[in-house]
Amino acid sequence: MALFALSYDAVAILRDFAAAHGITYPLLADEGSRVIRALGLVNERVQDDHDVYGIKPNPRHVDLPYPGVFVLDRDGVIAQKRFHASYRERETGRGLIARALGIFTEPAAPATGTAAAVQARAWTDSPSYAFFQRLALTVELAIAPGFHVYAAPVADGLVPLSVEVAPIEGLEVGEASWPPPRRFDMAELADQLWVHEGTVHGTLPLTFTAAPGGGDHVVEITVRYQACDDSSCLMPSSLRLELPVREVALVGRSLPSPSVASGGAR
Amino acid sequence: MPLPPRDFRTIGPKEGEPFPAVRLPDQSGALVDLHAARAGRPALVVIYRSAEW
Lengths: 266, 53
Description:
With 266 residues, chain A is mainly beta. Chain A has helices at 11-21, 34-38, 46-53, 93-101; strands spanning 2-7, 27-29, 68-72, 78-83, 90-91, 111-115, 118-124, 128-129, 133-143, 148-151, 162-165, 171-173, 182-184, 193-196, 199-208, 217-225, 227-228, 237-247. In chain B, β1 and β2 form a beta hairpin.
């Protein structure tokens, strides 16, 4: 696997950055954004986006690319594109390795919980976050043998599987994605039902957009579901998982002092 | 507040297409031909805003 990084910086800036951080892979210098423009990656709407966040015009914010990663196969063909709307956004290194290369590492310290017929674990692809880094939250449900949980949409009176993340200031929570459920036929039911069984993994993107210094957080995750076997259903259940995440500084920066930062470090 | 979504399928080179030829200087000033430097390996090409800010 080869690794390249491309920005509009001059060679001298990249030389200093590589030396400061021990980077040995090529940092390509596209001064003037000639290649970025030829690739069609210039974000022409940076100032529109700035207006969303209340950021003033900045001469360095011209000819910026959308940030992202191309995954190339052996033939140099683009196998995957992983891009973001904001120049501040990026995945964690570990998350990129998992989702671009399919190499998953076991979580070091997952949050765990148990309720009716389900054991749950949750973890993020990195135990720490930096400003605007996108973490992937994985929720794993181990459903007891013989049981299933319902996927939306469900018939009246049944509770579908859902995951909710309690609000944290500046935390943007994306939509959960689950593997495709299995169709479940019950002779006495006219409606079609869809179920999950065995061990299933759902993922949700979490992006921490509050200003640096937001501090450490505990992500509170509520999983709601209803477990049934072939003959009867248990009462709707919910279980709660508490997952600590630590704030780290952006590369080359330090975090504001906790005494002046809102929330502070806990 | 999330930004309005972009359709990245239509922005830049597309999935399934060959990545274009790129020749640029690296941090040492040496000219790098991306595909030649890949030398038949798969690759990640990270596009990022700046190493300066």
